[in-house]
Design brief:
Order of helices and strands: EEEEHEEHEHEHEHEEHEHHEHEHEHEHHH
Number of strands: 16
Number of domains: 2
Number of helices: 14
Structural class: alpha/beta
CATH class of the largest domain: Alpha Beta
Strand content: 15-25%
CATH architecture of the largest domain: 3-Layer(aba) Sandwich
Shape: globular
């Protein structure tokens, strides 16, 4: 069933044929209980949209796990034409479809199942670009550009990502819109920072995080006053665990042992809920994001660290370039261990610098709240519905 065309009255409520109704979103994405950045993002955005009064129905990318979330109404099974048709039909019953795109999420040849779904869609479509590969394979480019062409709007989390998208792909500038990555604004946590200052990297552990360089840097930084320690918090990424087990974590542990850094570097592999994670972040001296990948265009860890008022030292991936550009952190070049070491030393030894970074992060935080981000998505969705109604 094709969705009805809605507009909004002055109160922001969706109106059709003289009746008021909440805007109805169909979301196609990885979703709980999947553990990955896209699933975290899509879940938080769905929560925030529902908080505005909107209706949200999720088509979850199947991964062998069972979701008990009430809003999950269908699953996209890789390689199944019946599933593709069913999922498209579900999305077509909504007013607007929000599709989260990332490399490796969808089935088919380099995600071609997503293209198959989009070819069947009749409702306005917003694509959230979680990855913008600079050097895609021929098939990756073919799939991604068709996804871009079929979208009514493409959302990126920063202007730097939008610039990269327009530079490397055939996409019309007017269809690209920047909406920041949202963040949950936790209440202020009373955190003790007495004792040894802590550098923190957290998130799902997998190769490409650049943690090796921070371990190398600790060989020098352990001599800094206060004897800082480096904490690596988080479980191993499920995909890495499925293919390689704990070999990456073991390799990092071996590196620590060889360098004699057992008292300076520690691992916390346990899952942390929002409250204990907030306390951990608040207790650290700085958050380190030394990612190898230059294609990292979204980072929930980055925005959470900034919104928590913690100084950030990060490699110059696109999302970090925009978020840290006003002074909330320090950017370093990829593969520059000396530059990384110098930046961390500055944060650890210069209270004025670290204090200014923390203050800038707190200033930025309200504009990144999920409630604010959800309103931007709702406004964009309403505009697209009106455009479709006008051209119907």
């Amino acid at each position: 069933m094709t969705a009805l065309s809605y507009g909004r009255d002055s109160s922001g409520i969706v109106v059709t044929q003289g009746r008021s109704a909440p805007l109805r979103f169909g979301v196609l994405a990885s979703h709980t209980p999947t553990m990955c950045g896209v699933a975290n993002f899509s879940g938080a955005l769905c929560d925030a949209l529902q908080a505005t009064g909107a209706s949200v129905e999720v088509v979850r990318v199947a991964d062998g796990q069972h979701s008990v979330a009430a809003r999950v109404v269908a699953e996209l099974t890789g390689g199944s034409t019946d599933s593709i048709a069913e999922c498209a039909a579900v999305l077509n019953q909504c007013d607007v479809a929000i599709i989260h795109h990332d490399v490796g999420v969808y089935g088919g040849d380099e995600g071609s199942d997503l293209v198959a779904v989009m070819r069947l869609l009749e409702v306005p479509t917003i694509v959230v670009a979680h990855a913008v590969p600079r050097h895609p394979s021929h098939q990756q480019r073919t799939v991604f550009e068709e996804v871009l062409h079929r979208a009514d709007r493409i959302v990126v989390v920063s202007d730097a990502v939008g610039d990269r998208l327009r530079a490397h792909y055939d996409v019309w500038r007017g269809r690209v819109k920047t909406i920041p990555h949202g963040v949950t604004l936790a209440p202020t946590v009373s955190a003790k920072r007495s004792g040894r200052p802590t550098l923190l990297t957290w998130g799902l552990l997998r190769p490409g995080k650049g943690i090796e360089r921070v371990i190398d840097a600790m060989a020098t930084l352990r001599e800094v006053r206060g004897q800082p320690k480096y904490v690596i918090a988080g479980k191993t990424h499920p995909r890495t665990l499925a293919t390689d087990g704990e070999s990456y974590r073991t390799a990092l542990s071996d590196q620590v042992e060889r360098a004699g850094l057992g008292t300076s570097v520690g691992f916390e592999p346990d899952y942390r809920g929002p409250g204990t994670l907030a306390a951990l972040v608040q207790s650290c001296a700085a958050v380190v994001l030394p990612y190898d990948a230059t294609d990292q265009v979204t980072s929930g860890v980055l925005v959470q660290a900034v919104a928590s008022g913690r100084p950030v030292v990060a490699t110059a991936f696109p999302h970090a370039i925009d978020v840290l550009g006003s002074g909330a952190g320090i950017l370093v070049a990829h593969d520059d261990t000396e530059g990384l070491t110098a930046a961390l030393r500055s944060v650890l030894t210069d209270p004025r610098l670290s204090g200014a970074m923390a203050a800038e992060g707190r200033r930025l935080a309200p504009s990144m709240a999920w409630s604010v981000v959800a309103e931007e998505y709702a406004t964009l969705a309403t505009k697209l519905v009106r455009e479709k109604r006008t051209h119907a």
